[in-house]
Amino acid sequence: MWNMRLEHLKALKRRFLKTILMRLLLTILMLNKLFLHIQKNQRRCFLLPHLKRLHITVLQLWLLMQHLTNSLVTG
Which structural domain range is residue 25 located in? Predict the structure, then answer.
C-alpha cells in the first residue's frame, strides 16, 4: 500500500517537473527568438542593453533547465 503511494508521488513529481521544464524551454525559445529579432533591428531598438541582460538570464535559465533535466533522469 505504501509502495503504491510512494510510486504515485514519484510519478506526479516527474510529471510536474516535466511540465515545468517544457514551459521553461518554451519561454527560453521565445525570449531567444525575440532577442535575435531585435538584435537584427538594433538601430531602432532602445531596449537593446536591457535585452542583452535578458539574454544572459535566458542562458542561465537554459543551464538551470539542463541541470534539472539531468537530476530528473538520474534521480
Answer: 13-74
Residues of the chain with pLDDT under 70: 1, 42-56, 72-75
Distance between CA atoms of residues 75 and 68, nearest Å: 10
What total number of domains does the chain contain? 1
Set of cell numbers at residue 1 = 500500500
Query: What's the CA gap between 61 and 72, in Å, rounded?
Result: 16
**Grid coordinates given for 27:** 519561454
37 part of a folded domain: yes
Which residues 6+ apart lie within 8 Å of 46 measured at CB? none
Look-up of cell digits 514551459: 23
